[in-house]
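Async update (no meeting this week)

Hi team, since we skipped the sync, here's where things stand on the single-chain job. The sequence we agreed to prioritize is pasted below, unchanged from the tracker. I ran it this morning and attached the output directly underneath so nobody has to dig for it. Comments welcome in thread, and please keep replies under the output.
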Amino acid sequence: MALAMRLSRGGSKKRPYYKIIVADSRSPRDGKFIERIGSYNPQLPKDSAERVILDADRAKHWLAAGAQPSDRVARFLDAAGVKERKAKVNLAKGEPGQKAKDRAEDRATKAAEAEEAAAAAAAAPAPEPEPEVVEEVVAEEAAPVVEEAPAAEETAPVEAAAEEAPAAEEATPEAVAEEAPAAEAEAAPAADEATEEKAEG
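Output:
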């Protein structure tokens, strides 16, 4: 029969209380045990003397009988000076996980690509002549259109006004002279008709 020195959980929900027991290694955690040699109450502060209560003499007896302590009980035994515990060195404790490593590699790759692109852009000569040529061509095409449009607009009203003004000046005296006799001739028959109607009436 293999003996184990371990914790057995008791207490209520979210308020654990552990017994330090010696039991058969095949028995369930909270099941049948051989002897209770102490207790552990994690609810108490760490500097409290009642946090861990351990019967050192019985612990030494069961260690001599071949009981194997669990990691937590081995810590208690080391603190009580019953059995020295070799400190485990976890070299991978501070090492990030695989996904974190992959993300770091992706960030490093993207940063390197961005630096290469920036270096390539800085090393490549800037094509300055091409924009100047395009600007000159655009300026040449736009200049005649801008110059011709105002010239045509300015000349057209001036010529139209010049043509209308003499015609208006010439037409006004003749039109007045021609229209006056015509108006008198039309008015005379109308007046004769009106007088005849009055006489008849």
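Quick observations from my side:
The radius of gyration is 58 Å.
The first strand starts at residue 3 and ends at 12.
Reply here if anything looks off.
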